[in-house]
Amino acid sequence: MRFSTFLLSIILFTNCLVFALSVNRTLCLLFTHLSVASDYPSAWLAEEVPNVHVRFSFCCRLWTGKYTMNLLRFVSLRHIFFITIIWLLALILFYRLHESVSIDYGKELPKMLNKIIKLEKEISEQNKEAGRLLERLDNDKFAQKWFIFSNSTDYTAHPDDRDAPLSIGDKIPVLVMACNRPAAIRVHLNQLLLLRPSPELFPIIVSQDCDHQPTSQVIDTYRDSITVIKQPNQTEPILSKKLKKFAGYYKIARHYRWALNQIFFNMKYKTVIVTEDDLQIAVDFFEFFLATYKLLIADSSLYCISAWNDNGQEVMIEDRPDLLYRTDFFPELSPKWPNGFWDDWIRDPPQRRGRSCIRPEISRTAMSLYGKSGVSKGLFYEKHLKSIKLNTKFVRFTAMNLTYLLKENYEKLFSSQVNQAPVVSLNAIQAGLWTGKSVRILYRNAKEFVDIAKIIGLMDDMKAGVPRTAFRGVVPVYYYKTRVFISPVGEWKNYDDN
Protein backbone atom coordinates (compact mmCIF):
# COMPACT_ATOMS: atom_id res chain seq x y z
CA MET A 1 0.00 0.00 0.00
CA ARG A 2 2.86 2.41 0.81
CA PHE A 3 4.56 1.73 -2.54
CA SER A 4 1.38 2.29 -4.56
CA THR A 5 0.68 5.54 -2.69
CA PHE A 6 4.26 6.74 -3.29
CA LEU A 7 4.06 5.86 -6.99
CA LEU A 8 0.77 7.72 -7.36
CA SER A 9 2.27 10.80 -5.68
CA ILE A 10 5.29 10.79 -8.05
CA ILE A 11 3.00 10.55 -11.08
CA LEU A 12 0.86 13.45 -9.88
CA PHE A 13 3.95 15.55 -9.14
CA THR A 14 5.46 14.79 -12.57
CA ASN A 15 2.21 15.73 -14.30
CA CYS A 16 2.06 19.04 -12.42
CA LEU A 17 5.72 19.78 -13.29
CA VAL A 18 5.18 19.04 -16.97
CA PHE A 19 2.08 21.21 -16.96
CA ALA A 20 3.97 24.11 -15.34
CA LEU A 21 6.84 23.82 -17.86
CA SER A 22 4.36 23.75 -20.72
CA VAL A 23 2.67 26.90 -19.46
CA ASN A 24 6.06 28.57 -19.05
CA ARG A 25 7.10 27.66 -22.61
CA THR A 26 3.84 28.93 -24.06
CA LEU A 27 4.04 32.24 -22.24
CA CYS A 28 7.64 32.75 -23.32
CA LEU A 29 6.83 32.14 -27.00
CA LEU A 30 3.80 34.39 -26.81
CA PHE A 31 5.62 37.36 -25.36
CA THR A 32 8.61 36.86 -27.69
CA HIS A 33 6.22 37.12 -30.61
CA LEU A 34 4.60 40.23 -29.19
CA SER A 35 7.96 41.88 -28.58
CA VAL A 36 9.22 41.26 -32.12
CA ALA A 37 5.97 42.43 -33.67
CA SER A 38 6.10 45.68 -31.76
CA ASP A 39 9.67 46.42 -32.98
CA TYR A 40 8.84 46.71 -36.73
CA PRO A 41 6.61 49.79 -36.55
CA SER A 42 9.10 51.47 -34.34
CA ALA A 43 12.00 50.84 -36.75
CA TRP A 44 10.01 52.02 -39.79
CA LEU A 45 8.92 55.08 -37.93
CA ALA A 46 12.49 55.90 -36.88
CA GLU A 47 13.73 55.82 -40.49
CA GLU A 48 10.89 57.98 -41.78
CA VAL A 49 10.77 60.36 -38.89
CA PRO A 50 14.21 60.71 -37.31
CA ASN A 51 12.86 62.12 -34.16
CA VAL A 52 14.38 61.77 -30.75
CA HIS A 53 11.00 61.25 -29.14
CA VAL A 54 10.12 58.46 -31.48
CA ARG A 55 13.41 56.69 -30.98
CA PHE A 56 12.99 57.05 -27.28
CA SER A 57 9.51 55.44 -27.54
CA PHE A 58 10.96 52.64 -29.65
CA CYS A 59 13.67 51.98 -27.08
CA CYS A 60 11.14 52.03 -24.28
CA ARG A 61 8.81 49.55 -26.05
CA LEU A 62 11.74 47.34 -26.95
CA TRP A 63 13.04 47.39 -23.43
CA THR A 64 9.52 46.86 -22.02
CA GLY A 65 8.85 43.79 -24.19
CA LYS A 66 12.12 42.13 -23.26
CA TYR A 67 11.67 42.97 -19.60
CA THR A 68 8.15 41.57 -19.58
CA MET A 69 9.29 38.31 -21.18
CA ASN A 70 12.16 37.93 -18.72
CA LEU A 71 9.85 38.78 -15.84
CA LEU A 72 7.32 36.16 -16.91
CA ARG A 73 10.08 33.60 -17.29
CA PHE A 74 11.29 34.43 -13.81
CA VAL A 75 7.77 34.27 -12.34
CA SER A 76 7.04 30.90 -14.02
CA LEU A 77 10.29 29.40 -12.78
CA ARG A 78 9.58 30.71 -9.31
CA HIS A 79 6.13 29.10 -9.33
CA ILE A 80 7.61 25.82 -10.52
CA PHE A 81 10.19 25.92 -7.78
CA PHE A 82 7.53 26.85 -5.21
CA ILE A 83 5.19 24.04 -6.34
CA THR A 84 8.09 21.58 -6.21
CA ILE A 85 8.97 22.59 -2.65
CA ILE A 86 5.30 22.39 -1.55
CA TRP A 87 4.90 18.92 -3.06
CA LEU A 88 8.08 17.67 -1.44
CA LEU A 89 6.99 19.03 1.94
CA ALA A 90 3.52 17.50 1.52
CA LEU A 91 5.01 14.12 0.61
CA ILE A 92 7.39 14.18 3.58
CA LEU A 93 4.56 15.14 5.96
CA PHE A 94 2.24 12.50 4.50
CA TYR A 95 4.75 9.68 4.84
CA ARG A 96 5.72 10.75 8.34
CA LEU A 97 2.09 10.66 9.43
CA HIS A 98 1.43 7.44 7.56
CA GLU A 99 4.47 5.75 9.06
CA SER A 100 3.54 6.95 12.56
CA VAL A 101 -0.02 5.69 12.24
CA SER A 102 1.15 2.38 10.77
CA ILE A 103 3.65 1.79 13.58
CA ASP A 104 1.13 2.66 16.28
CA TYR A 105 -1.51 0.55 14.63
CA GLY A 106 0.87 -2.38 14.36
CA LYS A 107 1.71 -2.16 18.03
CA GLU A 108 -1.85 -1.64 19.21
CA LEU A 109 -3.51 -4.27 17.02
CA PRO A 110 -2.57 -7.32 19.15
CA LYS A 111 -3.59 -5.45 22.29
CA MET A 112 -6.91 -4.47 20.76
CA LEU A 113 -7.58 -8.04 19.60
CA ASN A 114 -6.74 -9.40 23.05
CA LYS A 115 -9.09 -6.88 24.65
CA ILE A 116 -11.86 -7.82 22.24
CA ILE A 117 -11.37 -11.55 22.91
CA LYS A 118 -11.31 -10.94 26.65
CA LEU A 119 -14.45 -8.84 26.43
CA GLU A 120 -16.21 -11.55 24.41
CA LYS A 121 -15.30 -14.14 27.05
CA GLU A 122 -16.53 -11.90 29.85
CA ILE A 123 -19.80 -11.29 28.03
CA SER A 124 -20.20 -15.03 27.41
CA GLU A 125 -19.53 -15.84 31.06
CA GLN A 126 -21.95 -13.15 32.19
CA ASN A 127 -24.62 -14.54 29.87
CA LYS A 128 -24.08 -18.05 31.22
CA GLU A 129 -24.17 -16.82 34.80
CA ALA A 130 -27.33 -14.83 34.09
CA GLY A 131 -28.90 -17.95 32.60
CA ARG A 132 -27.98 -20.01 35.64
CA LEU A 133 -29.36 -17.36 37.99
CA LEU A 134 -32.60 -17.08 36.03
CA GLU A 135 -32.95 -20.86 36.05
CA ARG A 136 -32.35 -21.00 39.79
CA LEU A 137 -34.83 -18.20 40.39
CA ASP A 138 -37.36 -19.97 38.23
CA ASN A 139 -36.80 -23.25 40.06
CA ASP A 140 -36.98 -21.52 43.42
CA LYS A 141 -40.26 -19.85 42.55
CA PHE A 142 -41.66 -23.12 41.24
CA ALA A 143 -40.43 -25.20 44.17
CA GLN A 144 -41.59 -22.84 46.90
CA LYS A 145 -45.14 -22.91 45.56
CA TRP A 146 -45.26 -26.70 45.20
CA PHE A 147 -47.82 -28.59 47.23
CA ILE A 148 -48.86 -32.23 47.14
CA PHE A 149 -52.48 -33.35 47.34
CA SER A 150 -52.52 -36.96 48.53
CA ASN A 151 -55.99 -37.67 47.10
CA SER A 152 -55.26 -36.22 43.66
CA THR A 153 -54.87 -38.51 40.65
CA ASP A 154 -53.57 -35.83 38.28
CA TYR A 155 -49.83 -35.48 38.62
CA THR A 156 -49.44 -32.44 36.43
CA ALA A 157 -48.49 -29.37 38.44
CA HIS A 158 -51.44 -26.99 38.78
CA PRO A 159 -51.30 -23.35 39.95
CA ASP A 160 -53.78 -23.99 42.76
CA ASP A 161 -51.61 -26.82 44.07
CA ARG A 162 -48.46 -24.75 44.06
CA ASP A 163 -50.05 -21.83 45.93
CA ALA A 164 -50.77 -23.94 49.03
CA PRO A 165 -48.44 -23.54 52.04
CA LEU A 166 -45.78 -26.10 52.92
CA SER A 167 -45.79 -28.12 56.11
CA ILE A 168 -43.03 -30.15 57.78
CA GLY A 169 -44.34 -33.26 56.06
CA ASP A 170 -44.08 -31.67 52.63
CA LYS A 171 -40.43 -30.80 53.01
CA ILE A 172 -37.93 -33.22 51.52
CA PRO A 173 -34.71 -33.23 53.55
CA VAL A 174 -31.41 -34.22 51.94
CA LEU A 175 -29.39 -36.48 54.24
CA VAL A 176 -25.69 -36.40 53.36
CA MET A 177 -23.61 -39.27 54.74
CA ALA A 178 -20.02 -38.29 55.52
CA CYS A 179 -17.05 -39.85 57.26
CA ASN A 180 -13.41 -39.01 56.56
CA ARG A 181 -13.14 -37.36 53.12
CA PRO A 182 -12.91 -33.58 53.64
CA ALA A 183 -12.35 -32.72 49.99
CA ALA A 184 -15.23 -34.93 48.87
CA ILE A 185 -17.74 -33.41 51.30
CA ARG A 186 -16.75 -29.90 50.27
CA VAL A 187 -17.32 -30.61 46.59
CA HIS A 188 -20.59 -32.41 47.26
CA LEU A 189 -22.02 -29.69 49.51
CA ASN A 190 -21.05 -27.01 47.01
CA GLN A 191 -23.01 -28.86 44.32
CA LEU A 192 -26.06 -29.33 46.53
CA LEU A 193 -26.13 -25.68 47.59
CA LEU A 194 -25.62 -24.48 44.03
CA LEU A 195 -28.43 -26.58 42.53
CA ARG A 196 -30.90 -26.54 45.44
CA PRO A 197 -33.97 -24.55 44.32
CA SER A 198 -35.29 -23.83 47.82
CA PRO A 199 -33.65 -24.05 51.28
CA GLU A 200 -37.10 -24.33 52.86
CA LEU A 201 -38.26 -27.21 50.68
CA PHE A 202 -34.93 -29.08 50.65
CA PRO A 203 -33.15 -28.67 54.01
CA ILE A 204 -29.70 -30.27 53.99
CA ILE A 205 -28.66 -32.42 56.95
CA VAL A 206 -25.10 -33.73 57.11
CA SER A 207 -24.57 -36.80 59.27
CA GLN A 208 -20.92 -37.49 60.07
CA ASP A 209 -19.43 -40.72 61.31
CA CYS A 210 -15.76 -41.52 62.04
CA ASP A 211 -15.13 -38.39 64.17
CA HIS A 212 -12.58 -37.26 61.59
CA GLN A 213 -11.46 -33.74 62.55
CA PRO A 214 -10.38 -32.43 59.10
CA THR A 215 -13.77 -33.48 57.73
CA SER A 216 -15.56 -31.90 60.71
CA GLN A 217 -13.73 -28.63 60.11
CA VAL A 218 -14.89 -28.52 56.49
CA ILE A 219 -18.49 -29.33 57.45
CA ASP A 220 -18.49 -26.60 60.11
CA THR A 221 -17.82 -23.95 57.47
CA TYR A 222 -21.29 -24.67 56.02
CA ARG A 223 -23.27 -24.48 59.29
CA ASP A 224 -25.10 -21.34 58.13
CA SER A 225 -26.67 -23.33 55.29
CA ILE A 226 -27.00 -26.86 56.70
CA THR A 227 -27.82 -28.87 59.82
CA VAL A 228 -25.07 -31.08 61.25
CA ILE A 229 -25.56 -34.27 63.25
CA LYS A 230 -22.87 -36.71 64.40
CA GLN A 231 -23.13 -40.42 64.95
CA PRO A 232 -22.09 -40.85 68.62
CA ASN A 233 -21.16 -44.55 68.69
CA GLN A 234 -17.51 -44.77 67.58
CA THR A 235 -16.79 -48.20 69.07
CA GLU A 236 -15.57 -51.06 66.94
CA PRO A 237 -18.35 -53.53 66.04
CA ILE A 238 -18.10 -56.92 67.71
CA LEU A 239 -17.47 -59.39 64.89
CA SER A 240 -16.16 -62.88 64.45
CA LYS A 241 -12.65 -63.32 63.14
CA LYS A 242 -14.09 -64.25 59.77
CA LEU A 243 -16.09 -61.02 59.50
CA LYS A 244 -13.55 -58.55 60.89
CA LYS A 245 -12.36 -57.67 57.41
CA PHE A 246 -15.88 -56.39 56.74
CA ALA A 247 -15.94 -54.08 59.77
CA GLY A 248 -16.28 -51.02 57.52
CA TYR A 249 -19.57 -52.28 56.08
CA TYR A 250 -20.96 -52.85 59.59
CA LYS A 251 -20.01 -49.30 60.58
CA ILE A 252 -21.80 -47.96 57.51
CA ALA A 253 -24.95 -49.94 58.35
CA ARG A 254 -24.85 -48.63 61.93
CA HIS A 255 -24.42 -45.07 60.71
CA TYR A 256 -27.33 -45.32 58.26
CA ARG A 257 -29.66 -46.78 60.85
CA TRP A 258 -28.84 -44.05 63.39
CA ALA A 259 -29.12 -41.21 60.83
CA LEU A 260 -32.45 -42.40 59.44
CA ASN A 261 -33.85 -42.70 62.96
CA GLN A 262 -32.92 -39.04 63.49
CA ILE A 263 -34.70 -38.03 60.30
CA PHE A 264 -37.93 -39.98 60.75
CA PHE A 265 -38.39 -40.16 64.52
CA ASN A 266 -36.63 -37.13 65.99
CA MET A 267 -37.09 -34.61 63.16
CA LYS A 268 -40.48 -36.03 62.10
CA TYR A 269 -39.93 -35.97 58.35
CA LYS A 270 -42.01 -38.27 56.13
CA THR A 271 -39.39 -38.94 53.49
CA VAL A 272 -35.72 -38.28 52.79
CA ILE A 273 -33.23 -38.08 49.94
CA VAL A 274 -30.01 -39.86 50.91
CA THR A 275 -26.69 -38.98 49.28
CA GLU A 276 -23.07 -39.77 50.03
CA ASP A 277 -20.12 -37.40 49.87
CA ASP A 278 -18.56 -39.07 46.82
CA LEU A 279 -21.55 -38.42 44.55
CA GLN A 280 -21.99 -35.91 41.77
CA ILE A 281 -25.53 -34.68 41.13
CA ALA A 282 -27.29 -33.71 37.90
CA VAL A 283 -28.65 -30.26 37.09
CA ASP A 284 -32.24 -31.52 37.53
CA PHE A 285 -31.51 -33.66 40.60
CA PHE A 286 -33.97 -31.78 42.81
CA GLU A 287 -36.54 -31.41 40.04
CA PHE A 288 -36.51 -35.19 39.55
CA PHE A 289 -37.19 -35.94 43.22
CA LEU A 290 -39.70 -33.12 43.58
CA ALA A 291 -41.85 -34.53 40.77
CA THR A 292 -41.61 -38.22 41.72
CA TYR A 293 -42.20 -37.60 45.44
CA LYS A 294 -45.95 -37.43 44.84
CA LEU A 295 -45.88 -40.86 43.19
CA LEU A 296 -44.03 -42.31 46.16
CA ILE A 297 -46.65 -40.96 48.57
CA ALA A 298 -49.64 -41.97 46.46
CA ASP A 299 -48.60 -45.44 45.23
CA SER A 300 -48.18 -48.05 47.96
CA SER A 301 -46.50 -50.41 45.46
CA LEU A 302 -43.51 -48.04 45.39
CA TYR A 303 -40.97 -47.91 48.18
CA CYS A 304 -38.18 -45.82 46.69
CA ILE A 305 -37.21 -43.32 44.03
CA SER A 306 -33.68 -43.86 42.76
CA ALA A 307 -31.58 -41.35 40.83
CA TRP A 308 -29.29 -44.18 39.72
CA ASN A 309 -29.33 -46.51 36.71
CA ASP A 310 -27.19 -49.57 37.40
CA ASN A 311 -26.72 -50.04 33.66
CA GLY A 312 -26.34 -46.35 32.92
CA GLN A 313 -23.15 -46.45 30.86
CA GLU A 314 -23.33 -44.07 27.92
CA VAL A 315 -23.15 -46.88 25.36
CA MET A 316 -26.24 -48.57 26.84
CA ILE A 317 -28.66 -45.69 27.34
CA GLU A 318 -30.88 -43.77 24.98
CA ASP A 319 -30.55 -39.99 24.80
CA ARG A 320 -33.89 -39.60 26.57
CA PRO A 321 -33.35 -37.74 29.86
CA ASP A 322 -37.12 -37.58 30.37
CA LEU A 323 -37.51 -41.36 30.31
CA LEU A 324 -38.35 -43.07 33.64
CA TYR A 325 -38.92 -46.73 34.52
CA ARG A 326 -40.22 -48.88 37.31
CA THR A 327 -37.81 -51.54 38.55
CA ASP A 328 -38.03 -54.42 41.01
CA PHE A 329 -34.35 -54.08 41.86
CA PHE A 330 -33.93 -52.01 45.01
CA PRO A 331 -30.87 -49.73 44.94
CA GLU A 332 -31.52 -47.71 48.08
CA LEU A 333 -32.64 -47.79 51.73
CA SER A 334 -35.37 -48.84 54.20
CA PRO A 335 -36.50 -47.98 57.75
CA LYS A 336 -35.56 -51.48 58.98
CA TRP A 337 -31.88 -52.23 59.21
CA PRO A 338 -29.43 -55.13 59.49
CA ASN A 339 -26.12 -55.07 61.33
CA GLY A 340 -24.20 -55.12 58.07
CA PHE A 341 -24.49 -55.26 54.28
CA TRP A 342 -27.75 -53.31 54.34
CA ASP A 343 -27.86 -52.95 50.54
CA ASP A 344 -28.03 -56.72 50.02
CA TRP A 345 -30.40 -57.27 52.92
CA ILE A 346 -32.87 -54.68 51.71
CA ARG A 347 -33.30 -56.50 48.39
CA ASP A 348 -34.48 -59.71 50.03
CA PRO A 349 -38.16 -60.59 49.41
CA PRO A 350 -39.22 -60.08 53.07
CA GLN A 351 -38.12 -56.45 52.84
CA ARG A 352 -39.09 -55.73 49.24
CA ARG A 353 -42.53 -57.38 49.55
CA GLY A 354 -43.18 -57.14 45.82
CA ARG A 355 -42.72 -53.39 45.71
CA SER A 356 -40.87 -51.44 43.05
CA CYS A 357 -38.74 -48.34 42.65
CA ILE A 358 -38.64 -45.66 39.99
CA ARG A 359 -35.36 -45.05 38.21
CA PRO A 360 -34.25 -42.88 35.27
CA GLU A 361 -32.86 -43.88 31.90
CA ILE A 362 -29.99 -41.43 32.48
CA SER A 363 -28.66 -41.27 36.04
CA ARG A 364 -29.12 -38.15 38.14
CA THR A 365 -26.11 -39.10 40.25
CA ALA A 366 -22.63 -40.31 39.30
CA MET A 367 -19.57 -41.44 41.21
CA SER A 368 -16.81 -38.89 41.63
CA LEU A 369 -13.11 -39.74 41.84
CA TYR A 370 -13.42 -39.73 45.62
CA GLY A 371 -15.38 -42.98 45.32
CA LYS A 372 -12.15 -44.83 44.67
CA SER A 373 -11.09 -44.39 48.31
CA GLY A 374 -14.20 -45.82 49.97
CA VAL A 375 -14.70 -48.96 52.04
CA SER A 376 -14.87 -51.11 48.90
CA LYS A 377 -11.38 -49.84 47.90
CA GLY A 378 -12.63 -48.94 44.44
CA LEU A 379 -13.72 -52.53 43.76
CA PHE A 380 -16.25 -51.60 41.06
CA TYR A 381 -15.11 -48.06 40.32
CA GLU A 382 -12.73 -48.71 37.42
CA LYS A 383 -14.76 -51.56 36.00
CA HIS A 384 -18.21 -50.04 36.19
CA LEU A 385 -19.02 -47.02 38.36
CA LYS A 386 -16.87 -44.39 36.66
CA SER A 387 -18.55 -45.01 33.29
CA ILE A 388 -22.07 -44.23 34.52
CA LYS A 389 -23.25 -41.17 32.58
CA LEU A 390 -24.55 -38.19 34.54
CA ASN A 391 -27.47 -36.34 32.99
CA THR A 392 -26.62 -32.82 31.79
CA LYS A 393 -29.99 -31.68 30.38
CA PHE A 394 -32.57 -30.10 32.65
CA VAL A 395 -35.97 -31.82 32.42
CA ARG A 396 -39.03 -30.09 33.86
CA PHE A 397 -40.51 -33.23 35.44
CA THR A 398 -42.90 -31.22 37.62
CA ALA A 399 -44.68 -29.99 34.48
CA MET A 400 -45.10 -33.55 33.14
CA ASN A 401 -47.90 -36.02 33.72
CA LEU A 402 -46.17 -38.98 35.37
CA THR A 403 -49.26 -41.09 36.04
CA TYR A 404 -47.98 -43.66 33.53
CA LEU A 405 -45.60 -44.77 36.31
CA LEU A 406 -48.42 -45.79 38.65
CA LYS A 407 -48.62 -49.57 38.98
CA GLU A 408 -52.00 -50.10 37.28
CA ASN A 409 -50.93 -47.99 34.29
CA TYR A 410 -47.32 -49.02 33.99
CA GLU A 411 -47.77 -52.79 34.01
CA LYS A 412 -50.17 -52.63 31.05
CA LEU A 413 -48.05 -50.16 29.14
CA PHE A 414 -44.76 -51.97 29.75
CA SER A 415 -46.17 -55.43 28.96
CA SER A 416 -47.64 -54.12 25.71
CA GLN A 417 -44.31 -52.63 24.63
CA VAL A 418 -42.44 -55.84 25.40
CA ASN A 419 -44.93 -58.22 23.81
CA GLN A 420 -45.17 -56.20 20.60
CA ALA A 421 -41.40 -56.25 20.12
CA PRO A 422 -40.23 -59.03 17.76
CA VAL A 423 -37.87 -61.71 19.07
CA VAL A 424 -34.47 -61.41 17.39
CA SER A 425 -30.90 -62.60 17.89
CA LEU A 426 -27.95 -60.64 19.23
CA ASN A 427 -26.20 -61.03 15.89
CA ALA A 428 -29.07 -59.32 14.08
CA ILE A 429 -28.91 -56.38 16.49
CA GLN A 430 -25.15 -56.11 16.16
CA ALA A 431 -25.51 -56.13 12.37
CA GLY A 432 -27.67 -53.01 12.61
CA LEU A 433 -30.78 -54.67 11.18
CA TRP A 434 -33.06 -53.28 13.90
CA THR A 435 -31.66 -49.79 14.41
CA GLY A 436 -34.25 -47.39 15.82
CA LYS A 437 -36.73 -50.13 16.73
CA SER A 438 -37.71 -52.19 19.79
CA VAL A 439 -36.86 -55.90 19.95
CA ARG A 440 -36.72 -58.81 22.41
CA ILE A 441 -33.99 -61.24 23.35
CA LEU A 442 -35.18 -64.25 25.34
CA TYR A 443 -33.52 -66.11 28.21
CA ARG A 444 -34.71 -69.29 29.94
CA ASN A 445 -32.69 -69.22 33.12
CA ALA A 446 -30.19 -67.21 35.14
CA LYS A 447 -27.20 -68.66 33.28
CA GLU A 448 -28.55 -67.59 29.89
CA PHE A 449 -29.26 -64.12 31.23
CA VAL A 450 -25.71 -63.83 32.56
CA ASP A 451 -24.31 -64.91 29.18
CA ILE A 452 -26.36 -62.26 27.36
CA ALA A 453 -25.48 -59.59 29.92
CA LYS A 454 -21.76 -60.26 29.55
CA ILE A 455 -21.91 -59.94 25.78
CA ILE A 456 -23.81 -56.65 25.96
CA GLY A 457 -21.82 -55.31 28.90
CA LEU A 458 -24.55 -55.19 31.54
CA MET A 459 -23.98 -55.85 35.21
CA ASP A 460 -24.72 -59.57 35.32
CA ASP A 461 -25.22 -60.13 39.05
CA MET A 462 -28.60 -60.77 40.67
CA LYS A 463 -29.88 -60.03 44.17
CA ALA A 464 -32.54 -62.42 45.46
CA GLY A 465 -33.05 -63.54 41.85
CA VAL A 466 -33.68 -59.99 40.56
CA PRO A 467 -31.38 -58.72 37.78
CA ARG A 468 -30.35 -55.09 38.04
CA THR A 469 -32.94 -52.66 36.54
CA ALA A 470 -35.37 -55.56 35.90
CA PHE A 471 -39.15 -55.16 36.01
CA ARG A 472 -41.17 -58.38 36.00
CA GLY A 473 -38.04 -60.18 34.84
CA VAL A 474 -37.44 -57.86 31.85
CA VAL A 475 -34.25 -55.80 31.63
CA PRO A 476 -34.50 -52.90 29.15
CA VAL A 477 -31.29 -51.66 27.57
CA TYR A 478 -30.32 -49.48 24.60
CA TYR A 479 -27.90 -51.48 22.46
CA TYR A 480 -26.64 -50.64 18.95
CA LYS A 481 -29.22 -47.82 18.82
CA THR A 482 -31.94 -50.37 19.41
CA ARG A 483 -34.32 -50.65 22.38
CA VAL A 484 -33.73 -54.20 23.59
CA PHE A 485 -35.91 -56.00 26.14
CA ILE A 486 -34.04 -58.95 27.64
CA SER A 487 -37.06 -61.04 28.58
CA PRO A 488 -37.77 -64.38 30.22
CA VAL A 489 -39.38 -67.06 28.07
CA GLY A 490 -43.12 -67.39 28.63
CA GLU A 491 -45.27 -65.50 31.09
CA TRP A 492 -43.41 -64.06 34.07
CA LYS A 493 -44.71 -65.13 37.49
CA ASN A 494 -42.09 -64.29 40.09
CA TYR A 495 -38.38 -64.20 40.79
CA ASP A 496 -36.51 -67.31 41.85
CA ASP A 497 -34.44 -66.13 44.81
CA ASN A 498 -32.53 -69.42 44.77
Automatic annotation (TrEMBL):
<keyword id="KW-0333">Golgi apparatus</keyword>
<feature type="coiled-coil region">
    <location>
        <begin position="109"/>
        <end position="140"/>
    </location>
</feature>
<dbReference type="InterPro" id="IPR052261">
    <property type="entry name" value="Glycosyltransferase_13"/>
</dbReference>
<dbReference type="GO" id="GO:0003827">
    <property type="term" value="F:alpha-1,3-mannosylglycoprotein 2-beta-N-acetylglucosaminyltransferase activity"/>
</dbReference>
<keyword id="KW-0472">Membrane</keyword>
<protein>
    <recommendedName>
        <fullName>Alpha-1,3-mannosyl-glycoprotein 2-beta-N-acetylglucosaminyltransferase</fullName>
        <ecNumber>2.4.1.101</ecNumber>
    </recommendedName>
</protein>
<keyword id="KW-1133">Transmembrane helix</keyword>
<comment type="similarity">
    <text>Belongs to the glycosyltransferase 13 family.</text>
</comment>
<dbReference type="GO" id="GO:0000139">
    <property type="term" value="C:Golgi membrane"/>
</dbReference>
<keyword id="KW-0479">Metal-binding</keyword>
<dbReference type="GO" id="GO:0030145">
    <property type="term" value="F:manganese ion binding"/>
</dbReference>
<dbReference type="GO" id="GO:0006487">
    <property type="term" value="P:protein N-linked glycosylation"/>
</dbReference>
<comment type="function">
    <text>Initiates complex N-linked carbohydrate formation. Essential for the conversion of high-mannose to hybrid and complex N-glycans.</text>
</comment>
<dbReference type="InterPro" id="IPR004139">
    <property type="entry name" value="Glyco_trans_13"/>
</dbReference>
<keyword id="KW-0328">Glycosyltransferase</keyword>
<dbReference type="Pfam" id="PF03071">
    <property type="entry name" value="GNT-I"/>
</dbReference>
<keyword id="KW-0464">Manganese</keyword>
<comment type="pathway">
    <text>Protein modification; protein glycosylation.</text>
</comment>
<keyword id="KW-0175">Coiled coil</keyword>
<keyword id="KW-0735">Signal-anchor</keyword>
<dbReference type="InterPro" id="IPR029044">
    <property type="entry name" value="Nucleotide-diphossugar_trans"/>
</dbReference>
<keyword id="KW-0812">Transmembrane</keyword>
<feature type="transmembrane region" description="Helical">
    <location>
        <begin position="79"/>
        <end position="97"/>
    </location>
</feature>
<keyword id="KW-0808">Transferase</keyword>
